[in-house]
Write a structure and sequence with these properties.
CATH architecture of the largest domain: 3 Solenoid
Largest sheet: 26 strands, parallel
Strand content: 25-35%
Distance between the termini: 33 Å
Radius of gyration: 23 Å
Structural class: alpha/beta
Number of strands: 31
CATH class of the largest domain: Mainly Beta
Number of helices: 7
CATH topology of the largest domain: Pectate Lyase C-like
Shape: globular
Helix content: 10-25%
């Protein structure tokens, strides 16, 4: 079927028809050579375009994701988790667990969670789960039996409960080590040590999350402090992250402080805060991942991807590494039904923000429906040295109100000339989401792979996402 689709594509391509129309004027051998060259060129061009955005031979969102979690009934809790857990523990599918208050896995203990297990965060006590330094979590769900963290309220809302926090031993670029103590209300003095993170162990292992959903997390703690769906602080590269969906977070979905890690097939759905946020010297690779923003759910300062090295210079140790994120096959899309009207009401922001002293390399990715696609911090001087550290190649910019700008500067001619150079192979388009993605309008089982003449994007890089 794919082969026939390609033949249809080439046959209907007007440029190819024009070139082939001259073929009778050339001898037969030349005809064969020209035709072969054109077909080879066409195959190369089409596949180069197809591989942009999330990819896979099948829709990897099927089965384990849930785009209507408010309609899910996970049952009543049968067991309560509270306080400090200092010994190895296993959570079983037959029970529904309730996180009461701040729950810490301590003393190098291992928390194992069976596929299909449900853990609910308590609304009143701001339930949360923290994996402390040296401890680990083994949460390996299955595509047909994911592990679910959700709210215990009957009518669920973003920010109902705390979230999942993993504190590791890898480096961070702040002075000294870090503390997440401000994330916990009524933290006892003996528990302050459990909120520490950071160290020198780049290879540290905090476990694995795979086929995990985190719903309605991100509760407000104080006037300026919120939990995130998943906070990863100083997490080492032996920790594994695959197939994680965070939906309806009350603040940021994925937030990463320092550490060294890789993330594959991440999904952020209608988060109020940013979808993927990297800061404080993170060295990260993220691939084949998706963020879907709603203009009516955003807190007004949120982006799909935010890359920074610090929030203030005073906390940044300039002798340590800056943040570097490499990303491939991302899809960022805004779900506005009327993009122009939402932009006029200031409901739609940029998809990507890059801060000072940060490095970002993004390739083969799709950004659809933003205002604009990318913004660079206004303290970033537009010169070759700085732009060499912010690479945007093989991109598909669709239906964006502008592409790449410096913050607070409406003149982006230098940036457009730079990233519009043919060597970057970026593509620009204007088409509705329904025509851009394979099954955008399917509310239950959407397919956000890029639609190119009804030929779906395929995973042709088997070494990209090797799993242990």
């Amino acid at each position: 079927m794919v082969f026939h689709g390609l033949i249809d594509y080439f046959w209907n391509n007007q440029k190819m028809q024009l070139l082939l129309s001259f073929a009778p004027k050339i001898n037969t051998m030349k005809n064969i050579i020209i035709t072969s060259f054109l077909i080879l060129y066409g195959f190369t061009a089409v596949f180069a375009q197809q591989e942009k955005g999330i990819k896979g031979n099948t829709n990897w969102l099927d089965n384990w994701t849930e785009f209507r979690p408010s309609q899910e009934d996970y049952g009543e809790p049968t067991k309560i988790l509270t306080g400090n857990i200092s010994e190895d523990m296993q959570l079983n599918k037959r029970d529904v667990y309730l996180l009461m208050g701040s729950v810490f896995i301590t003393n190098n203990a291992v928390l194992k969670i069976e596929p299909g297990t449900v853990i609910l965060g308590d609304y009143k006590s701001k339930g949360s789960l923290t994996i402390t330094k040296g401890a680990s979590i083994i949460a390996k769900g299955e595509s047909t039996d994911p592990i679910v963290f959700s709210s215990n309220r009957s009518v669920k809302r973003p920010g109902d409960w705390g979230g999942l926090v993993i504190l590791g031993e890898a480096p961070i670029n702040r002075f000294g080590s870090g503390s997440a103590a401000s994330y916990y209300s009524n933290l006892s003095p003996r528990d302050y040590a459990n909120a520490n993170y950071g160290g020198d162990n780049i290879e540290s292992n905090s476990g694995i999350l795979k086929h995990v959903r985190i719903e309605y997390a991100g509760k407000r703690i104080s006037e300026d402090t919120y939990y995130n769906g998943l906070l990863l602080a100083s997490v080492g590269k032996e920790t594994k992250f695959y197939d994680i969906m965070i939906s309806h977070a009350g603040e940021d979905a994925f937030e990463v402080w320092g550490g060294n890690l890789s993330m594959f097939r991440m999904v952020s759905y209608k988060s109020k805060g940013s979808d993927f946020k990297f800061n404080y010297g993170t060295r990260a690779h993220i691939a084949n991942s998706l963020a879907i923003r709603s203009p009516y759910a955003s807190n007004g300062h949120a982006r799909c991807l935010e890359v920074k090295s610090y929030d203030s210079k005073e906390e940044f140790d300039f002798n340590k590494k800056t943040t570097f994120v490499s990303a491939t096959n991302l899809t960022f899309l805004n779900s506005s039904e009327n993009l122009e009207a939402d932009i006029k009401m200031d409901l739609v922001k940029e998809a990507v923000y890059v801060g000072v002293s940060s490095l970002l390399k993004v390739s083969k990715s799709v950004i659809s429906g933003f205002n604009p696609a990318v913004i660079l911090d206004d303290d970033i001087t537009v010169n070759q040295n700085n732009l060499d550290g912010i690479r945007l190649t093989d991109m598909y910019f669709n239906n964006c109100n502008g592409n790449i700008f410096t913050e607070n500067n409406s003149n982006n001619e230098d940036l457009e000339n730079w990233y519009g150079n043919l060597s970057f192979a970026n593509v620009y388009s204007k088409s509705p989401n329904g025509e851009t993605f394979i099954d955008y309008n399917n509310k239950r089982k959407p397919d956000y792979r890029l639609r190119i003449n009804k030929i779906m994007a395929t995973n042709n890089d088997p070494d990209l996402e090797k799993e242990d």
